[in-house]
Amino acid sequence: MSQLGPEIVLGVGGGIAAYKSCELLRRLQDRGYQVTVVPTPSSLNFVGKATWEALSGRPVNVQVWENVHSVPHISLAEQSEYFVIAPATADLIARLAAGRADDLLTNLVLASNSPKMLVPAMHPSMWLDPATVSNVQTLRDRGFKIMEPEVGRLTGSDEGQGRFPETASIVKEFDELTGNISDLVGKRVLVTAGGTQENIDPVRFIGNRSSGKQGIAIALAAKKRGALVHLIAANVDEKDVRGIQTTHVVSTQEMHEALTEQFPQCDILIMSAAVADARPKLVSFEKIKKTLLGTIELTPNTDLIAEMSKSKTNQLMIGFAAETRDHLQEARRKMESKGLDLIYVNDVSGGAIFGKDKTMGTILTRNGADIAVKEVSKDALGNLLLDQAIRQLG
To answer: Hey, where are the domains in the chain?
Structure first.
């Protein structure tokens, strides 16, 4: 699973309900899924290729014979972690049950071992026909997850079982298939990431080694779990935070201003940014000549966590500590002195952790329990911290 969320194929069958899959695509993207749309040729009678490309932001192929040099039926099958086919028509279900491979979508299904979910939509007589009933059972026996269509009005005046389910129901079923948890729905999560920089002159600054990877991973994990996320990012690559509401800052003062504005509205604050403890007392507006560089007089920066703690009402606050010695004792001291509910500490001796894709350390809680974290991805740590936050919130 990638940092930006699971790669999935959204297959679209040739039924009138195809237009409803435009909304499904958007909601899947909101849940963090990275979606490639693969329509059947007949579905283009309802929703055109250009629409899918505009909504997904990705190229859309229909036949195996398009972009042959990239062997799309193999390359896309290998990169996709899940399939959801919505709508799945009676014809498409029959072709899948027979093992046909007469367009790109059916080729992909045969070429991939990834979990697959079908969302049937058709006239009630077609859904209840013995051939369709048998085909559906065949696919279920092969491990396909198949939603039951809803009962209601269809095209024209007909009513019965065969209606395309509501988008929210489809997303819920698909989340169950993928294990995408939704336990932060309705919660506002505020995350800081990156490292603040304090100017010495127009070309030099005091900074640190933080890449922002951990904070971005936490923000993405919270979004996938249904939270409304706001990221305050200090000096990180903008392309890494696409899809997350983000305030970009440079200095500690700018981060303080953003926190002061956003903190009252949040339920959970996660301070993963590496904030500069001090800044130059005087900043030159012109580049200082090398021959004139001597001592730099520093003045302390505001302790952002301590400041937020002063105005805390019922927010849960999580902090980070990067230490080179006595890291557990130092983390416990910081947690108590700054009013944190949780703190994650790691040993950064020799530059460890900074800029890396994996991390290891310890989660400390207010009840005195220490949770050892063996080497895991920063995505996984983000979810571990959110799990603890949920427990703290009850």
So the answer is: 7-178, 188-393
Question: What is the radius of gyration, based on Cα positions, of the chain?
Answer: 26
CA distance 384 to 388: 6
Contact 68, 50 (CB under 8 A): no
Q: Which of 45, 67, 180, 208 is catalytic?
A: 208
Instruction: Measure the CA–CA gap between 385 and 346, rounded to whole angstroms.
Output: 14
Q: State the DSSP string of 305-345.
A: HHHHHHT-SS-EEEEEEEESSSHHHHHHHHHHHTT-SEEEE
d(CA 278, CA 170): 51
Q: Kind and range of the H or E element at 211?
A: none
295-341 per-position pLDDT tens digit:
889 999 999 999 999 999 999 999 998 888 888 889 999 999 999 99
Read off the pLDDT of residues 235-262 as tens digits, 9 standing for 90 and up. 998 777 877 899 999 999 999 999 999 9
322 Cβ partners below 8 Å, 6+ apart?
274, 345, 346, 348, 353, 354
Query: Alpha-carbon dihedral of residues 282, 288, 290, 292, nearest 10 degrees?
Result: -60
231, HSE (Cβ side, Cα atoms, 13 Å): 30
pLDDT class of 181 with cuts at 50, 70, 90: confident
Please provide the CATH number assigned to the domain covering 7-178: 3.40.50.1950
Tell me the pTM. 0.63
DSSP 18-62: GGHHHHHHHHHHHTT-EEEEEE-GGGGGTS-HHHHHHHHSS----
- The mean pLDDT of 60-82, rounded to a whole number, is 79
Name residue 39's beta-bridge partners: 12
Q: How far apart are the first and last CA of the chain?
A: 28
| Catalytic status, residue 208 | yes
Confidence check: pLDDT of 352 > 60: no
Specify the CATH number of the domain 188-393: 3.40.50.10300
